UniProtKB/TrEMBL annotation, chain A:
Belongs to the tubulin family. This is Tubulin delta chain. The keyword Cytoplasm applies. InterPro entries: Delta_tubulin, Tub_FtsZ_C, Tubulin, Tubulin/FtsZ_GTPase_sf, Tubulin_CS, Tubulin_FtsZ_GTPase. The keyword Plastid does not apply. One of its GO terms (cellular component) is cilium. GO terms for biological process: cell projection organization; microtubule-based process. It is found in: Cell projection, Cilium; Cytoplasm, Cytoskeleton, Microtubule organizing center, Centrosome, Centriole; Nucleus. One of its GO terms (molecular function) is GTP binding. The lineage of its organism: Eukaryota, Metazoa, Chordata, Craniata, Vertebrata. Coiled coil: none annotated.
Automatic annotation (TrEMBL), chain B:
Belongs to the tubulin family. GO terms for biological process: microtubule-based process. This is Tubulin epsilon chain. Residues 55-277 form the Tubulin/FtsZ GTPase domain. PROSITE patterns: TUBULIN (PS00227). One of its GO terms (molecular function) is GTP binding. Residues 279-414 form the Tubulin/FtsZ 2-layer sandwich domain. It comes from Microcebus murinus.
């Protein structure tokens, strides 16, 4: 079964590239630490999941790249093509000229509807290439405007159009200390909308991954490239096939906890081991249910609570609101989001 | 990618504009080795086949033929614009994109705004529409002018309203040179206050700059360069004031050096929109993140480094010094004291080989010494652009929305009141059709209201962070 990836915004596209690169490298690595037959079965399975075959043998990632300005998509497409090992589909991207300006309202209410048809068409084409669709993997950040706003919009559309397929959103939780000043607003708006339309939210915090780079990997001058590679490594391990059902989707804070030493790049989880690690944690349901199954989930309450708190504080002073109301997101919409998230936080605390 | 159009108004505006275009060409020449007209260059330049007459010469891809600046040059005297058109940059400007007159505005805002405003409104609109048509996706107008004179101040701010009406979706970023207290134009307080009202109401973002700060920066550089204290020499091209290089050979006047600083500011501001990086920041993000309330859109800028030593390997300690410098008063383009005032928001735009960990380390380090407003304690917006400016390995532009601009405005109001109370020189203004005393009183009220908003924010400075009760929900 195949997974179609949708990479949104600068963050989504930068990470998406690393993920495919990692998946490709892993599936083609010579040391699977298992029998040859095992390895071949593994390779066949994971190739089909994430890549489709082209005539001249270069695999094409099953991905759709979306961004509202061209620089990052251009970079991503050329990086993939230059590697010569795999590439993105020639027409599998949607791009505009002017970005979303870190404005969730602009992404959700302006860009989303305006480009709905084009974006959904490209996704449809990618879906048609799959023999059987397992679901969607949407990579986006919460702090900006495109990943967050258009990400929320597209996820909703996928919910409507492909109700029977799973949707998992990979969301990047921004650094606590500012990357974007309005990141808390963008985050609460994104989360409240995704709760209603996504099946699972896989969360990675920039702060956490940064710490991994610093403490576990001892990188001195950490770049986003380093961070994204660690992320891709984790994600890759989540996705590589394990014996039973396809599409293990999960809500976890830090998947690294389930992993072996990340420095061992050569061998992934052997299928048998992976099976053990993941066995208890498979959940195939809507968000609420999977939250109560996963014992790790309490971890996410604290950052969530903090973001809601900061956003609320800013909201009380009405700062920056004019930037959102300009594009149709009113105070009531904010209040709806706050209400929903407070309920989530309260539910967690009551567990 | 988007394009921007520069509207340079008045003597000051055009002189700075000239330095800007010179530096922009040098920057793109350094980055674009193959001479292909790419999206980065197209943000400020058109590619034109000069053999084609009329309008059909625009080339959108391929080799660079002839670059034309996306600019409109406006001055009510001919001297400065003529000099530009006879100088080394003459081919960069489209001769049809100029508006000049001969008599000048006589340092009178009313003449610039009311007389020339209405006289040249149609023509100006035509030129602006033309330059917009040449853009695939116009994002921003950069207006450069001074506040103390007549043309830049009066006509420049008249154009803000025109731009707002004609192109409501395009941002208006204004670079305004404020008069220092020793300004030799007596009526500069009148002109500035009258202009401020327009900036309050029609600009998206204002970068106030004063000549004194620019002058202090040059003095500092001169001292370093000439003192011979350093073991290693300063790379001449790296001076933020330098215009040596491709086109201009010598600096004739001190204003050249000062204008280059402003040119650097504008290029650094747009670098992350034009070039690639791991954390891009577009122009619309500047407004989104740094303007929490529509009126409070005055940003204090500071640039580092002012020069680079010839030593190429910069260890992290030097890199950290760059961040510290950005928060030192020596590097600010306007005299103000942000460290002792309240930050509403702050943006750090980094260029060159700097990574996210360097950025974060320095934010953590500098944060404790800065006061942020209670609802924006982590009010940082950051960007990383891979392409460094000419002559440097990296640079940092800090933009702060800080209540420290309040004293500057209050002082301006003070100077205004001293003149106004005696009705000095008022008749020069009132005799212009359309000008009444109410224009003056409204302008002062507008400024006072702005100052009051800053006051209210300042009042929250020493108070503890309020504990606002959260929504309580039924589970």
């Amino acid at each position: 079964m195949s997974i179609v990836t949708v990479q949104l915004g600068q963050c989504g596209n930068q990470i998406g590239f690393e993920v495919f690169d990692t998946l490709f490298s892993d599936s083609h690595s010579s040391q699977g630490l298992c029998s040859k037959r095992e390895n071949e079965a593994y390779q066949a399975s994971c190739k089909e999941r994430f890549f489709s075959e082209e005539e001249n043998g270069v695999p094409i990632a099953r991905a759709v790249l979306v961004d509202m300005e061209p620089k990052v998509i251009n970079q991503t497409l050329s990086k993939a093509a230059q590697s010569g090992r795999w590439k993105y589909g020639q027409h599998a991207y949607f791009c505009q000229k002017q970005g979303s300006g870190n404005n969730w309202a602009y992404g959700y209410s302006v860009h989303g509807p305006r480009h709905e048809e084009s974006i959904m068409n490209i996704i449809q084409k990618e879906v048609e290439k799959c023999d059987s669709l397992s679901g969607f993997f949407i990579i986006m950040s919460m702090a900006g405007g495109t990943g967050s706003g258009i990400g929320a919009f597209v996820t909703q559309n996928l919910q409507d159009q492909y109700a029977h397929s799973l949707k998992m959103n990979q969301i990047i939780w921004p650094y606590g200390t500012g990357e974007v000043i309005v990141q808390n607003y963008n985050s609460i708006l994104t989360l409240s909308h995704l709760y209603r339309s996504s099946d699972a939210l896989l969360v990675h915090e920039n702060d956490a991954v940064h710490k991994i780079c610093a403490k576990l990997m001892n990188i001195k001058q950490i770049s986003f490239s380093d961070i994204n590679q660690v992320l891709a490594h984790q994600l890759g391990s989540v996705f590589q096939p394990v014996y039973s059902a396809e599409g293990l989707f999960h809500y976890r804070r830090n998947p690294l906890e389930g992993f072996k030493d990340p420095a061992l790049y050569t061998s992934w989880l052997q299928p048998v081991d992976a099976f053990n690690v993941w066995k208890t944690q498979r959940a195939f349901s809507k968000y609420e249910k999977s939250a109560s199954l996963v014992s790790n989930s309490q971890f996410l309450v604290k950052p969530l609570n903090m973001i809601v708190g900061k956003a609320w504080n800013m909201f009380a002073s009405k700062a920056y609101l004019h930037q959102y109301t300009k594009f149709g997101i009113e105070e009531e919409d904010f209040l709806d989001s706050f209400t929903l998230l407070e309920q989530v936080v309260a539910s967690y605390y009551n567990l | 990618m988007t394009q921007s159009v520069v509207v340079q108004v008045g003597q000051c505006g055009n002189q700075i504009g000239c330095c800007f275009w010179d530096l922009a060409l040098r920057e793109h020449a350094a980055v674009n080795q193959k001479g292909i007209y790419d999206e980065a260059i197209s943000s400020f330049f058109r590619n034109v086949d000069t053999r084609v007459t009329g309008d059909g010469g625009t080339i959108s891809k391929g080799k660079i033929c002839s670059l034309k600046a996306r600019a409109v040059l406006i001055d009510m005297e001919e001297g400065v614009v003529n000099e530009i058109l006879q100088g080394p940059l003459r081919d960069v400007f489209d001769s049809k994109q100029l508006i000049t007159d001969i008599s000048g505005s006589g340092n009178n805002w009313a003449v610039g705004h009311k007389v020339f405003g209405s006289l040249y409104q149609e023509q100006t609109l035509e030129k602006l529409r033309k330059s917009a048509e040449h853009c695939d996706c116009l994002q921003c107008f950069f207006i450069i002018h001074s506040m103390g004179g007549g043309t830049g101040s009066g006509l420049g701010t008249f154009l803000l309203k025109v731009l707002e009406d004609e192109f409501p979706e395009v941002y208006r970023f204004v670079t305004s040179i404020y008069p220092s207290s020793e300004d030799d134009v007596i009526t500069s307080p009148y002109n500035s206050i009258l202009a401020m009202k327009e900036l309050n109401e029609h600009a998206d973002c204002v970068l106030p700059i004063d000549n004194q700060s620019l002058f202090d920066i040059i003095s500092k550089i001169d001292f370093v360069v000439n003192s011979g204290k350093l073991d290693t020499t300063v790379k001449p091209k790296s001076l933020v004031t330098s215009s040596a290089g491709a086109l201009k050979k010598q600096q004739k006047k001190p204003f050249d050096a000062m204008n280059n600083i402003v040119a650097n500011l504008l290029l650094n501001l747009t670098s992350s929109a034009r070039f690639e990086g791991s954390l891009n920041m577009d122009l619309n993000e500047i407004s989104m993140n740094l303007v929490p309330f529509p009126q409070l859109h005055y940003l204090v800028s500071s640039l580092t480094p002012l020069y680079t030593l010839a030593d190429v390997n910069i260890p992290p300690r030097r890199l950290d010094q760059m961040f510290s410098d950005a928060f030192s008063k020596d590097h600010q383009l306007i005299r103000a004291d942000p460290k002792h005032s309240l930050y509403l928001a702050c943006a750090l735009m980094v260029r060159g080989n700097v990574q996210i960990s360097d950025l974060r380390r320095n934010i953590e380090r500098l944060k404790p010494s800065l006061q942020f407003v209670s609802w924006n304690q982590e009010g940082w917006k950051t960007s990383l652009c891979s392409v460094p400016p000419v002559g440097h390995s990296h640079s940092l532009l800090a933009l702060a929305n800080n209540t420290c601009v309040k004293p500057t405005f209050m002082e301006l109001r003070e100077r205004f009141m001293r003149l106004y109370k005696k009705k000095a020189h008022l008749h020069h203004y009132l005799q212009v059709e359309g000008m009444e005393e109410s224009c003056f009183t409204e302008a002062v009220s507008s400024l006072s209201a702005l100052i009051q908003e800053y006051n209210q924010l300042d009042a929250t400075k020493s108070m503890p962070v309020p504990d606002i009760p959260r929504l309580s929900v039924a589970v």
